[in-house]
Amino acid sequence: MAVLIKSVIKKSAAGKCGIKPDDVLFSINGSEISDVLDYMFYSAETNVNIIVLRNGVKLDFHIVKSEYEDLGMEFDTFLMDKKQSCRNKCIFCFIDQLPTGMRETLYFKDDDARLSFLQGNYVTLTNLNQSDIDRIIKMRLGINISVHTTNPELRCRMMNNPSAGEKLEYIKQLSDAGIKMNCQIVLCPGINDGKELENTLNTLGGYMPNIRSIAAVPAGLTKFREGLYPLERFNKISAGETLRIIRKYQSEFLKKWESRVVFAADEFYLLAGQPFPKGYEYEDYCQYENGVGMLRSLSDEFIDAVENINDNCKDRNISIAAGTASYEFIRGLIEIPCKKWHNIHCSVYPVVNDFFGDTITVTGLLTGQDIIAQLSDKPLGDELLLSDNIIKKDSELFLDDYTVSDVEKALNTKIRLVRHDGYELLNAVLGI
């Protein structure tokens, strides 16, 4: 598949050799180019032969450049192609639980393996065929996989996709080829936890050492589940049992592979009322973006930052809003600097997620309207601190399309967005 070149960067390798906008990229070093993976892989060499189509005529260009230097061609989309949407209808899918009337992009179900390599997204493999797997192996690309269960029949039922079970064979092929994989298991009580979780961990353990890590995360359930598969939330007992199983396999994997491999999302510890593991037990925090070890990392960084600042601090009167799951944890952290510097006053407020339902307890899914409704009568001080993962990346939008400015105006308080980092959180608390 040829790809239209939208523009060419001036003084780039492609620009210098005479490639022009509206040329059609046909091949690099004899290989046809269909998307960004082909483009990046075949253009990495120092000697590159490029064929483009210009007004239907094939033109051949030869470029000598440094290894991995970008050629300088730009295309209509980052992927040079359309995103691949999900073919499944998983019983726990969060997008199916969204209310109507939200911005259109929130309803797009992404299941694009190319974004797994480029941005760390997790994919189910159901969009892939054998040629895709062969290309992954040829290019030696690591991949992040949403496994959920290694029971083929159960996987088909959970994903409502008759091919979901047979696609598990791809994991074996990738492992046999030495491809490194990170895996995700979204757990639903009574469905793929308990004995099924043990079966999944046993199976994935057989692909070691090519399984780098496994994250176990609880399914998020909103109040908009009418007509969907009936699911229950984890409670203290079921969350505790899940942690018992994970600790069991961590111990086995650690002895055999010198890595714990499988890790539980922070929410399981909060639900079970159990302390988080020590920082070293998360190893390299490779499942951090899955909510694994985020609060332990935040705590360790924050306490280290407090201990390493001995200067007097200016007077501060501020507030923090947090989801109900992490509220007590955040409040306990904030007490540390408030006790050290008595001129710092910080109120921490829990915000119940009325928008999605009170079963959604994480801070990252709070909406502007809930923050306004529940904090409008609270003393917020000079500044309200919010985690920046509440906001759409590179924008000021909450999930409900309220803006940071909307919330500031309604609360008559300045908002400071804080990255999920203990050092940055302390800086925000101290007004640095």
Summarize the structure.
This protein is an alpha/beta fold and 432 residues long.
Tags for this model:
432 residues; Rossmann fold; pyruvate-formate lyase- activating enzyme; 4-stranded parallel sheet; alpha/beta; 5-stranded antiparallel sheet; single chain; 3 domains
How would you portray this structure in words?
By secondary structure, this protein is an alpha/beta fold. It has three domains: 3-74, PDZ domain (Pdz3 Domain), CATH 2.30.42.10; 95-289, pyruvate-formate lyase- activating enzyme (Alpha-Beta Horseshoe); 298-430, Rossmann fold (3-Layer(aba) Sandwich), CATH 3.40.50. The chain contains 14 helices and 15 strands. The chain has helices spanning 13-17, 36-42, 113-119, 130-139, 152-159, 169-176, 194-205, 236-257, 266-272, 294-307, 327-340, 368-375, 404-411, 422-430; strands at 3-4, 7-8, 24-28, 31-32, 47-54, 57-64, 73-74, 143-146, 181-187, 211-218, 262-264, 316-323, 344-351, 383-387, 414-418. Strands 1, 3, 4, 5 and 6 form a five-stranded antiparallel β-sheet that branches. It has a four-stranded parallel β-sheet with strand order 8-9-10-11. Strand 5 (47-54) and strand 6 (57-64) form a beta hairpin. Helix 8 (236-257) packs across helix 9 (266-272), helix 10 (294-307) runs parallel beside helix 11 (327-340) and helix 12 packs parallel to helix 13 (404-411). The longest helix is centred in the middle third of the chain and has 22 residues, at 236-257. The mean pLDDT is 94.
